[in-house]
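Title: [Solved] Ribonuclease P protein subunit drpp30 3D structure

Original question kept below for reference.
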Amino acid sequence: MVYYDLNIDSSLPEPKIKSMLSLHTKYGYDSVAITHTVEGKIGYKDVCKIKKIQIEDDSEKSTSSGWMKMGDSNKTIKQYTRLQVICKTMAEFQMITANNPVVQSYDIISVVPYDVSVFNAACNSNEIDIITIDTFSKFIIKPERVRQCIAKGIFIEILYGNLFGIDADRIAFFQIASSLVRSSFGKNIILSSSGKSSTTLRSPYDLSNLGHLFGLTFDQAKAAVSKHPHTAVLHAITRRTKGIATVTDPNLLKDLELWKLERKEDTQPTNNNIPHEKHINKESTGKETIPKPTTTTTTTTTTTTTAKTKTPTPTPTTEKTPSIPTQPPQKPTAKSNKKTTTNTTSTAQKQGKMDIDIDNNKRKRE
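Solution (posted by the thread starter after getting help):
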């Protein structure tokens, strides 16, 4: 694992920079960037004058694990040059172009936006590699702009050196860091020291634990000091050479090819048309079939009746014969229950009267 710190101030005296580089090697860092900061518009006086510092003592031996041990590895620390421009207006930001010789003289280009318009323009720019969010950036960061920045391959840098300052800087650091993590979901975030004092420098493992305080997972915090800075350096190489470069180190060529493949996978669609398992019905035969949508159709039928008119046909005239009138057949009518009950009661009364009359006649005869 390769660890990076991409922000060491170049305005410090050379002995102090040398002591800081030796401390970086003790903590396990493999690469650093010495930064030249410009406030406002850049000019010819800002052409890169940074020289690589030679460390001759035994402290240049670093560790591969990131712990403070000496003499376990013979790796020498790599040094990159970086231009950091503090932009307050769009006129200052528009000076950063690929045709500018000042920009071409540095390995990495970064911007510190102090205005929301500069930040929005930087998220859609092809001329920079890193956007540094400082505690002086007093504007609201929108998630849409952060995701646009990620799609462009630009990284957002957070300086953890502000934690060791006053309370206001500490509060502003956690507010900015937590909002960036929520907007980017932990992608394309770089953690760097301010590079002004050796007391603010921390090891990569300390930074991995620090990332938990503002929402990063352990892997994301570890990538913020290893994978993401490494990808930013590769992005700077392709930006400077416009995709065509002569690479003498085969390991760097391998990293460039892997980075291009990762970028292609992130930007191109996957063309994955296979549905999820929960959307697939498994029949008894064991085959998987995609359920077809069922549609119900309702049909309505209408019937129309047409009245047929019969034309009268002429009948021959014949002599009339007297005919016997016939009564029309009477249709049987259904009697109700009330009528049947009244009929039965009337017949019973009649039979009772007849019985009384018969008894009276017998008595008279006697």
